[in-house]
Amino acid sequence: MQHKVIDANDVVIRFAGDSGDGMQLSGTLFANMSAIYGNGLSTFPDYPAEIRAPKGTVAGVSGYQVHIGNHKINTPGDFCDMLVAMNPAALRANAKWLKRTAMVLVNDDAFDDMGMKKAGFTGNPFEELGIEDRTILAAPITKLTEASLEGSGLDVAAVHKCKNMFTLGMACYIYNRPLDFLYEYIENKFSKKHPEMVAPNKKVVYDGFNYASNIQAVPNTYTVAPAKLEKGTYRNITGNQATAWGLMAAAEKAGLPLFCGSYPITPATAILEELALYKSLNVKTMQTEDEIAGICSAIGAAFAGNLAVTSTSGPGLSLKSEALGLAVMTELPLVVVDVQRAGPCTGMPTKTEQSDLNEVLYGRNGESPLVVVAAHSPANCFDMAFQAAKIALECMVPVVLLSEGFIGNGSEPCRIPTMKDYPAIKPHLVKSCDGPFNPFKRDPETLARNWAVPGTKGLEHRIGGLEKTHEGVLSNDPDNHETMVRERAEKVARAACRIPELKVDGPESGDVLLIGWGGTFGHILTAVEDMREDGKTVSFAHFDYINPLPKNTEEVFSRFKRIVVCELNSGQFANYLRGILPHHEYLQCNKIQGQTFLVKDIVDAVEKSL
Amino acid sequence: MAKYTFKDFKSDQEVRWCPGCGDYAVLAALQKVLPTVCEEKGIDKEKVVVISGIGCSSRLPYYMDTYGFHTIHGRATAISTGVKVANPELCVWQASGDGDALAIGGNHFIHAIRRNVDINIMLFNNRIYGMTKGQYSPTSRLGAITKTSPYGTVEEPFNPGSLVLGAKGTFFARSMDTELSLNEAVMLASSRHHGTSVMEFLTNCMIFNNGSHAELSDRENKADRIIVLKDGEKMIFGKERDKGLVLENGRLKVVRIGENGISEKDLLTHDSHSDNLGLQTMLAEMKYPDFPVAMGVIRDVQEMTYEDGVCDQVAEVTSKSKIHCVDDLLKSGSTWEI
Lengths: 610, 338
Fold this sequence. Notes:
The complex is a heterodimer. Chain A is of the alpha/beta class. Chain A is 37% helix and 22% strand. Chain A contains 21 helices and 23 strands. In chain A, the strands form 5 sheets. In chain A, strands 11-10-12-13-15-14-21 form a 7-stranded mixed β-sheet, with helices on both faces. A 6-stranded mixed β-sheet of chain A has the order 3-4-2-5-6-7, sandwiched between helices. The longest helix of chain A is centred in the middle third of the chain and has 17 residues, at 198-214. By secondary structure, chain B is of the alpha/beta class. Chain B has a domain at 6-217: Thiamin diphosphate (ThDP)-binding fold, Pyr/PP domains (Rossmann fold, 3-Layer(aba) Sandwich), CATH 3.40.50.970. In chain B, the strands form 3 sheets. An 8-stranded mixed β-sheet of chain B has the order 2-1-3-4-8-7-13-9, with helices on both faces. In chain B, strands 10-11-12 form a 3-stranded antiparallel β-sheet. A two-stranded antiparallel ribbon of chain B has the order 5-6. In chain B, helix 1 (23-41) runs parallel beside helix 6 (180-192) and helix 5 (160-166) runs antiparallel to helix 9 (277-284). Chains A and B meet through helix 1, strand 9, helix 10, strand 11 and helix 12 of A and strand 1, strand 2, helix 2, helix 4 and helix 10 of B. Strand 17 (462-464) of chain A pairs parallel with strand 2 (67-70) of chain B.
């Protein structure tokens, strides 16, 4: 058989196994290796809520999808070119994601009676799943790993933990990836604390690579050339990491200490974890006793003059509602990061959704508007966190930054920016005033109130949740209340002056405008690009700023015949637009499955709308 | 540094508590001690912050000419914590009622104590919800008849001292609205204590729970029903100064000096600074009529504060870290060139 090396534009690989099989690590390593090689890249970890669900069951399957390409990659990919399934359950759970041309690499040793039974197979699993026509590569990975590490001195459990590295070695052969990166990773990880693990890990990767090569496991191997990316220094970053870093960048630009009060919650916890690492950047983090204390300690820190942050996910945001109202009322700068997950209530904690929009827009008592922005990709979390903090500090308003499990956990390579390219942040601080200090006297342009922090001489004043006059005096006066309600709303509305206009990707006018917000960006963009390749004319506008909307929104909408709003909920943004810009008809493309869109979902919705 | 008098701490707002409310006494005491607090700490008054939750007593910040924050129900402790951690140079005082601190805010209350954040919590305990017009609180006595317990409550109250000491609090003191000089003494001791201080003030609610601690404040009998604990002094009480406390079989016991061969030297000597949490807890839990109710500083011990721990860690990590600006951070770890 003639072995060929095929140049692919892009490939999607899905690593799946038991939650203890190390598939998140295999996926991450393959992604990082590809990033360093210069590929375009997008990843998505898809893991169960249980840390270790019953071994071998479908509920316990953990997956990590990597999409690499010779061009900029915007989604983790709908279907995969290769599935690594470490056990029968992983095969069952992921068979539906196989392309027709896909290759399946399974650990044959795990397909014993017990494994088959746990996954509910009675006969040939490939036939049962209707995937017997795919290229199936069944390797006795457990036995091969054992053989590779015979005499290494590692115990059986430690040897079995190395199966993922053997598999990764095989994947490196199939996709023509040199092993240097893995060697370096292994050395960095183990040489200090577990030097005895360095040699065995290197060996097992090497043996996996050679095994695939020796048995001529696959008819062809593949290469994916580096993408033509802008020159510069790159790094891989997850959305949660980028959010934390963007907040630290904002604190630095504002010249303020950063305070984060949070309570651990999936999938937002990594933001608190990340901030906790960088105390040297004038960061204080507090893991509080509950979600309410998270936001309340942050509000206290905002009162005391810090850039104050709290991070959470949907159920946590529900708990923070009253305190968020306090931040609205006292007009303190505060950034609340909501990494959305499928709800309601506990919902599906590890699954992505965009269903907290109504909650952040409307989920407080009274007239309680605040600024809402949304990040659209892992790397974009950095910019949006920066912007959220900038608006909060300059407009004296709480800002909710919406992220999602998908982009929070997902990663992509990003060109490292330098802070000198970022704008200054000018907090609305006052150091002195003529005459008595009026805490709710407003800046005529932005309507921001003055921020006098404790410790500032002569500006002693009281704020609180009760309605007050501009002078800060308690008031139940009907006219004063209406004035203050309208001013707080107007202040939020005027933030529109400092946000970028809505951009249209594709023709500036036409039949169809696709609308998205948040983490659906990559899928919609890919759908639009695919449709254009098929000769269709579609335009796309993505909202990073939700409240207020960009100033030109109405004008952009009026140039299109049909507007299709794509979102991972039942139509919350569409309804919001209907309320603000009722003169347009909004078609909807929705998905509420705790999963991202498939590019195909969007293409189908557009076709239906035509 | 400026010299202050109590007038410097009075705001221009009219105090709007009901006539005869016990809260007036606590407010007055705070305004009177703050000049001394500022002097002792060497700080100007703009460093003083008064924070409160919701309830009658939580209106207190409006009456103080300091930085003040009237927050939301139950959360004062969490907000005070944020203020203190964000800027440890501030001198933070908190006003909370029994509902605010012990019902809706119970979680924040015990966790602040556990962390030992240097805040001064003034717990106004009138054993009733006054602002909502007379419902029972977590400190209402068993059987209390209120609007929401027309047939009497069927739940035991909290003793705030038990909660504080149960959470290994580093400072607990008790006073009552009628004890003007003790109120000030307790506040000064609280100010000198580095860590979370809880001061329980028994306050009367004229309207909804009049006589909430009348048996203790009653001038005729007070001396027999309370004991004001003072460090280094024997635990003596009574109109005739003839009663005292001893430990017998591991329990407190009231004895009479001169009876059964008991002399003053046999009585317990108070030591709020000792690590004898068990004895301090027993003192805090003494209930009339079996015992006199303990007043004064019951426990005052030194432990590391949370904000010091946070700041020390920031300083240590900063001195060792290679990352001193966001550009350093962005370039750290695994990067590659294209």
